[in-house]
Structure formats: C-alpha cells, structure tokens
Amino acid sequence: MATVQLFVTCLVDAFAPQVGEAVVDLLERLGLTVEFPFGQTCCGQPAFNAGFRDEARRMAVHTLEVLDATEGMIVLPSGSCADMVIRHIPDLVADDPDLSEAAQRVAARTREFTSFLVDDLDVTDVEATGAGSCTLHHSCHGLRNLGVKSQPERLLDNVQGMDRVELADATECCGFGGLFALEMPDVSIAMLDRKLDNIEASGADTIVGGDISCLLHIAGGLHRRGSSIEVRHIAEILAKR
Amino acid sequence: MTSFLERARSDIGTPPIAALQIGARRFSDHRAHAVEAFPPMDDMRDRARAIRLHTLANLDRYLAQFADALEGVGGHVFFAADAHEANEYVVQLAHARNVERIVKSKSMLTEELHLNDALEAEGMEVVETDLGELIVQLANDRPSHIIAPVLHKTRFEIGTLFEEKLGVPYTDDPIQLNTIARRHLRPLFLTADMGISGVNIAVAQTGSICIVTNEGNGRLTTTAPRIHVAMLGAERLVPSIGDMSVILEVLARSATGQKLSVYTNVLTGPRRPGEPDGPDELHVVIVDNGRSKVLAGPSSEILACIRCGACLNVCPVYRTVGGHAYGSTYPGPVGSVLTPALFDLDEWSDLPYASTLCGACLEVCPVRIDIPRLLLDQRNLSVQTRTGPMWMRRPLRAYAGAATHPGRFRALLRAGAVIGRLFRTGWIRRLPWRGAAWTRGRDLQAPVKSFHRRWKERNRGS
Ligand code: SF4
Question: For atom 4 of ligand 1, which residue has the closest CA?
Fold first, then answer.
C-alpha cells in the first residue's frame, strides 16, 4: 500500500480543517496510507507574493526540511500552494546547492489534490454521491501554472446524483490574490462581485473549488450577500458517499 | 500624485468602465477564435519570442545595423537619450523646415514623450489622425488602451463630442462618425508639412520601418507630407524582413483577432527620384528614455513586448479599473511592469501590486512574457527599496517566526480557534486595522479547531 504525505496548507489548517479530513478519508478509501508530517506550517506563499522574499524563504526552507524527511507523494488540497512548492520554492533557494537539491526532490513529489487523483492514480470516479447541483470555479494558479482543469471537472462529473452546471467565466480570477484583497480592496471587491453574480446566475446550489483561499473569498462574499449557496472544497464533495 | 487605488476607486462601476469591459471582452473573444483557427500559432509564438529575445540580447549591434542601412537609403537617424532630446530634435527640425501643421499617426511613444505638448508650445498645430487618438485629442482625454485608445468611450459620447468640437449635427452611427472624421481630416493631411508616426517594427537589415494600422491614416501620415518623422522605441527591432513577418503573424491575431491588420506599411527610406509619392525627407528618432536601464535590469524581458494589448483585454483587473487607473502611457499588465521599470519604482511602486497574479496575461502574450514573474520580482525590489507595502513587514516577520517553529505555529492556531469561538455565528463581520479592507466587502470565516488538533484527536499521534 502506497504512502502519501498530506500537506494541508495553513489556511485549511486554521479555517477549513474539514477539507483536510475529507482528503484523508478519500485517499484512505482509495487504499492509500496517509501520513501527516506534524511539523508542517506554511509554504511561505503569502510573503512571497507580497514581495517579502526573506520571510518567504525562511518558511520555504522550513517546509522543505519537513517534507524532504518524508517519503512518497506529497498531496496538497490547493493549486496555489502546490504551485509554490513546485515552481517558486526551487527558485527561492536556487542560490544554495543543498537546499536546491532538496527543493527539486520535494517538487518532483508534490501534487495538487485532483491532479494526483486523476493523473497519478488514474482515478476519475471516486464513487462519491451527492445531491443537487454544483458549479466549479477554477482557481488561477492551479489552472494556469499547473494545468489543473479537466481533472476536477471529470471527478465532479462522476459524482452520483449531483449535476454540474456551467459557470460563466469560470476561469476568471475571483479577485482574491492574497495581499491584493487587502491592498486593493475596491478592485478586489468589484471582481468578487462579478464572480458572485455569475455564481448566482448559474443556478447551482453549491459552488465548488480546489483552493481554500479563493473559497474563503467567495464564501465571505456570499455570506455578506446573505446567499444560501453552499461553498465546498472539491475534496469535501468527493469524500461523501 | 494619486495612487492606483485612488484612481481606480473613482472609475470602478462607471459607464466608461462598462464600455471598456465590453470592448476588451470582444477583443479577447476575437483573439481566442483567431488563435483557434490558426494551428501554427503556438509555434509562431515560440519563434516570435526567440526573435525578440535574440534582438534584445544583441540590441547595440542591430541598432547600429539599422542606422547604417537607413542612412544608406537616404534616411536620417537620431539617437535620443531621453524625452527632452527626442522632443528637441523634432521641434528643431520643424522650425528649420518652417513647419506649421503636423499630422500624426497613432504612437504610444510620443504619448510617453509628451511630444504634442512640446510642439504645441512652439506654436505648431498637431493633429492626431487615428480616429481613437483624434477623439482623445478633441476630448482632452488620455488613451485607456494600447491599441484602442478610446475603448472607454461610448459612441453616444463621441457623437456629442463631434457635435461640440466639429460643429456637425449629432449622430451616434459609427459609420457616419467615421465619415465625419474622415472629412475633417482630409484637408489637414493635404496641407500638413510634417507627418509624425510611431513604428511597430523596425528591420535592422534593411533599415525599413513597419507601421500597422486599420484605418489607412498611417499611410497618409507617412506619405502625404513632405517630411516624415518616425519615432522608434529603441527596443522595437527585428533582424530581418523574415523575422518581421513572424511578428506580424502573431501581432494582429493577438490584438484584434485579425489575420493581418488592414494596412501594413513597410517603408524603406524617403521617396526616390521617379517615385510618385512619399516624403522628401525621412527622419527616424530612436528613443532610449529609460530603455537601456530596463535592458540591464531584472525586468528586461518586458522589452520583448510587441504592444498587441492582448494582456490588457484578458486582465480582470484592467477590465475592472480601466486604463486610466494605471496613470501612465502603458496600462494593464504590461504597464504594471514597464512603467516602474522605465521610469521610477519609487513613484510607481503600487503598480506591481495592482495584479492578483492570476496569469491570464501570460496565457495570451504572443511572445510569452512571464508578466506574473516580473511583477513578483518588482514587488521584491520594492520591498528591498522600502517603497512597497511596508506595513506587512511586521506581521509577516511574526508569522514567519511562528511558521518556522511548529510549536509556536500550533499555539497560534489554538489562539485563533479561541478567538474564533467568540464569534457565535462562525463569521467575522468587522476586522480592525488593515483587516478592515477585507471586511469592507466580505465577511470572514472565524478560525476553528485546527486540522493539527483534529488529526491528533483521531488518535494518529504526532
Ligand atoms: S506584454 Fe505581451 S500580451 Fe501584453 S501587449 Fe506586450 S506582447 Fe502583447
């Protein structure tokens, strides 16, 4: 039985632990042994995106130390954090030969959750069941930097009893962008409003995504609107049977 | 100076932005269809990128070759180090040749240099002849888009403007508006002493300049007056005519979804004896104005840009705020990199932050410029020079301190969960300090019992 390492990401850890649990449940159902490296914290992406590379580097090095000491594939329920580990951390530590090697090793073992299921395990039907209708928002980093698009679509399409309806401009950014949401609030909120209008217009009763950062943004906006549309990470949908 | 956010704030949700949003979407849809209908596009993009990067890596050599070739066919070349030198050259030339009226074809470089102001200050009449630029000029406005300067105006506004400034009866019919502009411009073309154009692509080998338009005004500007002055950004070269054709393949498709722009003029030197038209004199002003600084710096890749505007059209931020929010000649993603690199990071330090790094720009750029990476590099530079959002430093340092000590990190999670419990509904409606920017338009889910603790409780140990 293969062993996989779960890296939950800091936002899931603090705000949406049920997503981590769903990933564990599902991977175990698929016959994998899930390990959770307990020393894990944050990959450093927030600081990196804000331009604070010294701070980002410290977090990245810590993440490398924790992950490089483990074995098997590393699975993240987040496209943007996976992108950080796969593409940016190697750049951040490129000046140090030892760290650089570790970063390459870790990057090679790291996968975004849905692409791990579809591309590595070759599973598109996880025998999940659901109800009602959902619509899928594609988060930017997973989509454009890691090529995660068809994987979540196929997985969702195989959920028994749940319809997937199209979302207009499903690949357009929701306006979160980490620091952007705080530095450029008016712009961020206007972008979010467009996203929420599209979500409401889709008629779906659940909005699904693969990255908790965007989902926190979308959920926060929907809640402010008093909307009853549910916000779910794709792992939560796929874990249900 | 105002900040990006202030400029954006006053524009968001206004009718001009709505107009721009529709226009930008139309362009990007057209682009998508054109790319789909042209399977070699991917390959062409790679070739275009290689050509541009190769040229930049050997720019001195190609500039010298271009200057020699152009002089060989009777053209004049002037290298201008900055805006002042460039403007001064044109002003002096105009004086020396007793120029009174000047017609101009669309050129962003002259916008960057404020050349019109310089000429008008000397008493010369300067007429923009690109329909969009003419409208901008009549309205005393600024362009909001690289290739469609008045993307932010509706035809109703243009109708009113023409009624007011040109003394014609109001119409909002695009064809009639076009005819009005044409009638207005015809006599001006014929009586102008000098034509000023930009240059889309310059060819080093032959000394040729290529000017691409959709209205034919470029052709008139460069051939009707007796003097033609072409303003060339020092980076906009390719080695050969063959290379130029590769750029043309990707340029129009990326910009408007056309296979080729309606008018693609390649000019090599002034009129030769026996030729029916063309200017007696051709001057090419090669403008540096910060470009060699960019070339030597970490953002040099942005100089590969061929100004197609595709990155603007797909950018969700640009579509939300419009071009004026970017505050300089170059808006959108390309502007967010180019403006601070070309001018002054101090003054423009917020532009690299005017992006969510969503990557839509990189996805469409015909020369595959990694704009998100360049933005990240500039953000880092702005932190190093302390011009960026320094308020983040303390919180991020504290967070990094916790995140590099797992015990502290878990304590932080526990503290978060304790605070989270204070919010009975599970939602935070108002955050203090900088967090207020979040809760202005969104609620925040309260932190809950962490995954770390749930994992432990599942008896998995640690
Ligand atoms: S950066 Fe790329 S997409 Fe944007 S204008 Fe330049 S060439 Fe076009």
Answer: B311
Residues flanking ligand 1, CB < 6 Å: B 254, 305-311, 334, 364-367, 369
Chain B contact set for A196 (CB, 8 A) = none
B435 CB neighbours in chain A (<8 A) are 182
Are residues A184 and B360, on separate chains, in Cβ contact within 8 Å?
A: no
Low-confidence ranges of chain A (pLDDT < 70): 1
Chain B residue numbers touching A38 (CB-CB < 8 A): 406, 452, 455, 462
pLDDT score for B64: 98
Decide if B427 touches A, using CB distance below 8 A.
Answer: yes
CB-nearest to A49 from B320, B357, B378 is: B357
B316 Cβ under 8 Å from any chain A Cβ: yes
Q: What is the pTM of this model?
A: 0.96
Instruction: Name the minimum distance, in Å, from the CA of B118 to any CA of chain A.
Output: 35
Tokens encoding A230: 């549910």
CA torsion sign for B278, B284, B285, B288 is positive
**pLDDT tens digits, B129-148:** 999 999 999 999 999 999 99
Q: In what order do the strands lie in the sheet with A3-6?
A: A33-35, A3-6, A73-76, A110-112
Across the interface, which of A10, A58, A187 has its CB nearest the CB of B404?
A58
Burial (CB count <10 Å: 0-12, 13-18, 19+), residue B386: exposed
Q: Position A157: which residue type? A: D
What is the pairing mode between strands B281-287 and B76-80?
A: parallel
- Supply the pLDDT for residue B210: 97
**B162: exposed, middle or buried (C-beta count within 10 Å: 0-12, 13-18, 19+)?**
buried
Q: Residue B89: what residue type?
A: Y
pLDDT tens by residue, B441-462: 999 999 999 999 999 988 665 4
**Residue B257 confidence class, pLDDT cut points 50, 70, 90:** very high
Which residues on adjacent β-strands are paired with residue B80?
B287
Segment 132-191 of chain A within 8 Å of chain B by CB? 140-141, 143-145, 172-173, 175-191
Nearest to B120 by CA among B90, B146, B82: B90
Q: What is the ipTM of this complex?
A: 0.96
Q: Other C-beta atoms within 10 Å of B92: how many?
A: 11
In Å, what is the CA distance from B91 to each residue of A187, B94, B234?
A: 41, 5, 20
**Contact, A6 vs A32, CB < 8 A?**
no
Whether residues A140 and B404 touch (CB distance < 8 A) is answered with no
What is the mean predicted confidence (pLDDT) over B244-252? 97
B373 confidence band (pLDDT: 50, 70, 90): very high
